[in-house]
Amino acid sequence: MSKKMDALDYHSIGRKGKIEVISTKPCQTAADLSLAYSPGVAEPCLAIQQNPEDAYKYTAKGNLVAVVSNGTAVLGLGNLGALAGKPVMEGKGILFKRFADIDVFDIELDTENPDEIIKACQLLEPTFGGINLEDIKAPECFYIEETLKKTMNIPVFHDDQHGTAIISSAALLNALHLVDKKIEDIRIVVNGAGAAANSCAKLAIALGVKPNNMIMCDTKGVIYKGRVEGMNPYKELFAADTHFRTLEEAADGADVLFGLSVKGAFTPEMVASMAPNPVIFAMANPDPEITPEAALAVRSDVMIATGRSDYPNQVNNVLGFPFIFRGALDVRATCINEEMKLAAVKALAKLAREECPDSVCKAYGNQKFVFGPNYIIPKPFDPRVLLHVAPAIAQAAMDSGVARQPIEDMAKYIEHLEKTQGKSKEIMRMIINKAKSDPKKIVFPEGENEKILRAAKELVEEGIARPVLIGDRTKILQKMAELAIELDVPIIDPADSELTEKYAAELYQVRQRKGLTLSESQRILRRKSRTHFGSMMVRMGDADALLGGIDTHYPETIRPALEVVGKQQGLSSVHGLYMMVSRKDVYFLADTTVTIDPTAEELAETAILAAEKVRMLDLEPRVAMLSFSNFGSVKHPQALKVRRAVEIVKERAPELIVEGEMQADTAVVPELLEGFTFSKLKTNANILIFPDLNSGNICYKLLHHLGGAEAIGPILMGMNKPVHVLQRGDSVDDIVKMAAIAVVDVQNI
Ligand SMILES: NC(=O)C1=CN([C@@H]2O[C@H](COP(=O)(O)OP(=O)(O)OC[C@H]3O[C@@H](n4cnc5c(N)ncnc54)[C@H](OP(=O)(O)O)[C@@H]3O)[C@@H](O)[C@H]2O)C=CC1
Ligand SMILES: CC(=O)C(=O)O
Ligand SMILES: [Mg+2]
């Protein structure tokens, strides 16, 4: 199917367009109705009448932005009119929502009269917390924005001007750093003299570009002093004292070329004529002034960015407006001022230079993003952008005195932002904070593995754990050098470690009656199995926990761990627990990895251990013992086994909220539980104990792959000391999370 058809289908299939309104309060019963509407609704109305600020408390105003357009400059497609611009405005709406959880009404105004737009926005002030002007052409956009800023008390921001300026400036700073040119020395040509070009040029000058080193062009060519045709006061500001008259002439020898005009405006000849290591930002949408392929075909030293998501270096205001408004709304800023814009520039430029997490690489098909010519600006799907830009904006608003509701605790605010990114972040942040409060020594038997090294770096930098790496020292150091990882952690090479003899003697003690000789024990520890060595470190107290299995099959890690660390006394088995995290909820599923056909005793053990783990994470355990039968509805041995397990749990842990046997939907849908008035479980369970490994293992994989839940685990329960098995496909993030869980495990021994 063609890309055109794909795009049309995307917009037309199912509910038409891209947005809908959903309610945040229940409206199912007559009682709900009397609160949502008359008579209850009168109360907030009267409160707001008394105190207008209460609108932020009782209505959606504080999180609601109007995306206002008249469609006179829709992307680079020109004046398509208000109605035809609507898909772009709905698009901005879903980006606001997706990236910053801001709600948007798109407002398309069928007028080219600036005063009518101004009036409409002013009249809308009671409805919205902010106004994002979009795709309104120059020069009218300048008058409209300036007037609204002066007359309105909520932030008004013309995205095409300032959003674009912020992103292009951040990318410019990074590009110049990479080509080793000073901003005050560069000669820059800006093609386009409209909304975006004007603001990008101004911000570049504020950052250090010399006005005399800038030339701006429009459809008539270079804007020079004395030019009369096609001029306006906004262009006049950039009129250059130059003999150049065409873009071709101006581009000759230039260091930087900004395109804020139309598709195809730059030619290969222009690219060829630029200075060494030229930087080209071809920002016209949907098609750039020149494609990266065409520019790179001319010369290999060119660094190029476009406004599109399907090329490297997307310099596009999507990286700005959601996060900028988030920060501004959260401090109830009265405007978005220069200080706030510069703060966003700095935050974005800095973030691109930091290591990019695996989760972002995954979101982009496992591409690697390392600060360099093909990665000069963060990716929109990088969740860190929200966490860096919104606080920077909020802080700058407070510092510059435009915040009506300052944030008292910035660290808490950042945690709150993380929460908005989903339950997974909230829970993991809580686990990571716990780990950081008392980091423990985690041994990694696969110390030569790249992901382990990168995870170790993160664990040290974040203060989550104290990693110990096992492996060939030379290889580990070589790999670190290749990856440019500087890491000061213990590296233990079993081949020459003084611990090996001691551990061999201990292993021999433990396994001599299972046919192990001392010399075999020495061979295993010195050469054969680093998992044995790591497990021995945990057994002997030289490390607190072990994390292994990234390079091996599950039994190759679990077997040595069981032999050396062993399961807790009195337990029949060890058990595997998965934490399944969706955007809204977290569920713990067990046993997912160890016992194929557990007895009632073993099921009870799984339930009690899972509850302990969940308590350890400061959550209240609510256990459902799952079956195909609901409280005795089927008298099959499989159902009776689960029923017996419930009895055992109730005997052994009478304080625990546990119920069953029950079907899975009864466990997770509170309304279905209501029929069983005798049930101790009154709301949805958060621990689901499966009757066998078949169901547990199948369920967690389906939830992960079809249901989109994040699967964190397996968290191994019932070992003498914490050992957790990594999965072969685990990312660096997964390893860091498991390490944090292991640390919290140790803290709770
Ligand atoms: N990547 C991004 O994030 C963003 C990219 N843009 C892109 O920037 C472009 C301009 O948008 P915007 O400023 O909002 O629109 P405006 O209508 O305000 O400005 C358009 C400008 O482009 C000039 N122009 C048109 N064709 C040419 C040409 N062939 N050569 C030189 N100049 C030309 C016009 O010149 P004249 O004054 O003579 O008519 C005008 O100055 C669009 O392509 C848009 O997609 C905009 C915002 C964000
Ligand atoms: C990205 C954008 O806002 C534009 O091209 O107009
Ligand atoms: Mg736009």
Automatic annotation (TrEMBL):
Keyword Signal: no
Pfam families membership: malic, Malic_M, PTA_PTB
Active-site residues, record numbering mapped to chain: K92
Residues reported in the UniProt entry to bind NADP(+): V74, L75, G76, L77, G78, N79, L80, G81
Enzyme kind, highest EC tier: oxidoreductase
Molecular-function GO terms, alphabetical: acyltransferase activity; malate dehydrogenase (decarboxylating) (NADP+) activity; metal ion binding; NAD binding
InterPro entries the UniProt entry points to: Aminoacid_DH-like_N_sf (IPR046346), Malate_Decarboxylase (IPR051674), Malic_N_dom (IPR012301), Malic_N_dom_sf (IPR037062), Malic_NAD-bd (IPR012302), Malic_NAD-bd_bact_type (IPR045213), ME_PTA (IPR012188), NAD(P)-bd_dom_sf (IPR036291)
The Malic enzyme N-terminal domain, residue ranges: 16-149
Domain Malic enzyme NAD-binding: 161-398
EC number: 1.1.1.40
Cofactor: Mg(2+); Mn(2+)
Entry keyword set: Metal-binding, Multifunctional enzyme, NADP, Oxidoreductase
KW NADP (keyword) present: yes
An annotated GO BP: malate metabolic process
SUPFAM superfamilies in the cross-refs: Aminoacid dehydrogenase-like, N-terminal domain (SSF53223), Isocitrate/Isopropylmalate dehydrogenase-like (SSF53659), NAD(P)-binding Rossmann-fold domains (SSF51735)
Binding-site residues, a divalent metal cation: E134, D135, D160, N285
Family of the protein in this entry: In the N-terminal section; belongs to the malic enzymes family. In the C-terminal section; belongs to the phosphate acetyltransferase and butyryltransferase family.
Protein name: Allosteric NADP-dependent malic enzyme
Biological source species: Geotalea uraniireducens (strain Rf4)
Lineage start: Bacteria, Pseudomonadati, Thermodesulfobacteriota, Desulfuromonadia, Geobacterales
